[in-house]
Design brief:
The chain is an alpha+beta fold and 171 residues long. It has 5 helices and 4 strands. The protein has helices at 18-29, 35-42, 46-58, 91-103, 128-140, and strands at 78-86, 107-112, 119-125, 146-153. Strands 2-3-1-4 form a 4-stranded antiparallel sheet, with helices on one face. A hairpin with a 6-residue loop joins β2 (107-112) and β3.
Length: 171
Amino acid sequence: MKPPSKLLSRSVKPSLDRIDLLILDALRDNGRITYQALSERVGLSARPCLERVRRLEQKGVIRGYTALIEPAALGHDIIALAGISMRDPSTGTRQRLERALTANPAVIELQVVNGEYDYIARIVAPSLAAYEALTEAYLADPGFGIGRIHTTFVLKTLKSFEGYPVADNLD
């Protein structure tokens, strides 16, 4: 997945018309759809449809394209949701921790949150021992300023994240 040329900030929302939303909905359902099939689905000819997709990519609305892979197929038998509380919330410590977490391939999602935790991380591991070693390493390093990691293990996934809803905006 390549980064967009421009990143959207939360305060700046691009104006999206009905055709843009139809394009986004179609691409979310099938990122490998041909431009011909996409253009037929949204009611445009292929060239204007391609131009709209490129514009949505340039604006950062479309951040990239990816394959959805079954975690167990790659040996990720453990999926954990880790609530991370900071002992030292100073800017330098937070930046160090954020760099380390975002660089770790086992950390597949990381959110800054409010409330009981400072971060929520989705972490994959091949075993409980591997997960424990990973979290112990973060806890043992005082440079990361972590006070506590509260882990909830995923027992079964009933619905996986497969994209943000678009159809709600088509009404």
